[in-house]
Design a protein that fits this description.
Number of domains: 3
Bound molecules: 1,3-dihydroxyacetonephosphate
Structural class: alpha/beta
Helix content: 40-55%
CATH superfamily of the largest domain: NadA-like
Distance between the termini: 49 Å
Number of helices: 15
Number of strands: 12
Strand order of the largest sheet: 2-1-3-4
Order of helices and strands: HEHEHEHEHHEHEHEHEHEHEHEHEHH
Mean pLDDT: 96
Shape: globular
Largest sheet: 4 strands, parallel
Strand content: 5-15%
CATH class of the largest domain: Alpha Beta
CATH architecture of the largest domain: 3-Layer(aba) Sandwich
Low-confidence stretches: none
Radius of gyration: 20 Å
Length: 322
């Protein structure tokens, strides 16, 4: 039972949060800034963003903005992608150290070495990679368009898919196209297991399991639907079920509960935890967002030579579409 003190503390915390959010909105106007946030960001950040979405939607949004400043609430490769597309705009992020295990699993020097030994390779790079890796790639994809991107790859070239082995396997299953796969994985999505998802499924037998393709095969095989985070919003809206098991990072539940309020969303558990949090995504906080809008830093920069080369495969992806 909550004490009067608990209730008072919660009220004060909610007032402070609201005040900070209003200050962020005011600063955003003063700076002519746009706030872009990934679906995995904290709910209180999603609530002040101009656009919340998946990596693909965020890339399209970044390519269309007229703002002087892009505040990217996500992980580093996402802000870097926005900078590659927008060299003349200032791109800042609340915590520049918010990295990505997938991006870290593919080093540009290792990829360059592989390509020197396998010169006829066509590189499809998942957007979760560094600007240096993008610069060595032929085309970029996200989980929202990976199948379409691979289907449009030249038939006479051997494909190397970097850096996510699990997404790559899923795309191979969907397209029937053989690809060599880099051995990278998302440290958060691989924590979902066949056992943990079987248990939650048994508890909620009528709730479809919706999983992200970064999950391992033994989890994907339990899913009723596999899609990007944006695809999850569409599926929840259109499917007749009234509750869903969501097998991805827990920030997604905020967006789903906000946009599809009549339905129930159950977080996919891991073996040790009732949900799954990416600690990198959660490095961005409302306080850091406020400070970065106030100080216009930390800024994300990409060396021009790499930016120009990395832009080509991103533009190819944006042309292929969703
Ligand atoms: P999407 O943004 O394509 O849904 O992917 C989410 C993700 O796992 C990013 O690492």
């Amino acid at each position: 039972m909550s004490s009067i003190l608990d209730v008072e503390n919660r009220t004060v915390a909610a007032e402070n949060l609201g005040r900070l959010q209003r200050q962020i909105v005011d600063l955003k106007k003063q700076r002519n800034a746009v706030i872009l946030a990934h679906n995995y960001q904290l709910g209180e950040i999603q609530d002040v963003a101009d656009y919340v979405g998946d990596s693909l939607g965020l890339s399209y949004h970044a390519s269309k903005t007229n703002a002087d400043v892009i505040v990217f609430c996500g992980v580093h490769f996402m802000a870097e992608t926005a900078k590659i597309i927008n060299p003349t705009r200032k791109v800042i992020m609340p915590d520049v150290h918010a990295g990505c295990s997938l991006s870290d699993s593919c080093d540009a020097a290792d990829l360059r070495k592989y390509l020197s030994e396998h010169p006829n390779t066509y590189v499809v790079a998942y957007i979760n990679c560094s600007a240096g890796v993008k610069a060595l790639s032929d085309v970029i994809c996200t989980s929202g368009n990976a199948v379409k991107v691979v289907e449009s790859a030249p038939k006479d070239r051997e494909i190397l898919f970097v850096p996510d082995e699990n997404l790559g396997q899923w795309v191979m299953e969907k397209t029937g196209r053989f690809m060599k796969l880099w051995k990278g994985f998302c440290h958060a999505h691989v924590l979902f297991t066949h056992e943990s998802i079987t248990r939650v499924r048994q508890k909620h037998p009528n709730a479809p399991v919706v999983a992200h393709p970064e999950c391992v095969k033994s989890v994907r095989m339990l899913a009723d639907h596999i899609c990007s985070t944006e695809g999850m919003v569409k599926f929840a809206r259109e499917n007749a079920a009234d509750s869903f098991i969501i097998v991805t990072e827990e920030g997604m539940l905020h967006r789903l509960r906000k946009e599809v309020p009549a339905k129930t969303f159950i977080a996919g558990p891991t073996n040790h935890c009732p949900c799954n949090r990416c600690e990198f995504m959660k490095m961005n906080t409302l306080e850091k967002l406020h400070a970065c809008l106030r100080d216009l830093q930390p800024e994300v920069e990409v060396p021009e030579e790499i930016r120009i080369r990395a832009l080509l495969p991103i533009e190819r992806m944006l042309q292929i579409g969703r």
